Amino acid sequence: MKARVVVFPIRGRNWCFSRSADPSAGPDASSPPQKLRDLITNITSSRRSAPENAEIVVDFVSDKMNRAWATLEKAPEGTFKSKLHSLGLRLLSRVKPSEVFLKSVSKDVTQVEIAYPVGLEPRLVRRRLRHIAMRGSTIHKKRLYGSVSLLPLTSFLTVLPLPNVPFFWILFRAYSNWKAMKGSERLLPLVSDCWGSNDESMHRVNATSWVLEPSEELHKVLTEWKSGGVRDCTISSICSTYNLDKNQVLKYKESL
């Protein structure tokens, strides 16, 4: 599966790294939620490795969280669930855009198409992608361990009559950091010169795992960037052209 990544300087030393949404990929058809009993049966009845079983559990928890979030999103205005949804949006706004980008690199991605301004050095673009992948792997692994270590502490708050918001937030942070860590581990070999193997076929596969796409349109952005930063209206145009999440792209502009 191909993933199109758009890279361009957005303000000062801040660069934007964002994956284009696939317009042909519509929303998945709703399926009945999997029960805990089915999850246990699925894990115990097959000869999967521990990492494979861990992914199944993570997908199960992710599905439960997504369904719970969808319920909060549809809650009437002014209700307690609606207020919880607003709180969740404020918390999600604090998530760094680089984390969201790394989470978008799933395990089924086999090729990365890198769109960048034609005025940039291609080696610099690929070097920056490798850097964010290597740095993301280290950072999100530490944050994953930190989130997991906090889960037992926040679980004690379930005795309170109110929803245990801290527990579910820490659970989401653990899941999000795990996805970002896996995404960085997947991205790094895709944008590197080799897979770290002496097998010739592995080298041949990696030789086509990344494709550079210099863009004249993005090159025009550099003129604004040198004068202090890309304007919001220009960012809106870029996001519309490349199917990017504007809210996440704007975070790169304000991040340190």
TrEMBL record:
Gene Ontology BP term (one): potassium ion transport
Keyword Translocase: no
Matches recorded under Pfam families: Mit_KHE1 (PF10173)
GO CC list: mitochondrial inner membrane
Transmembrane segments: 150-172
InterPro entries, per the entry: Mit_KHE1
Keywords: Membrane, Transmembrane, Transmembrane helix
Name of the protein in its database record: Uncharacterized protein
Native species: Vanilla planifolia (Vanilla)
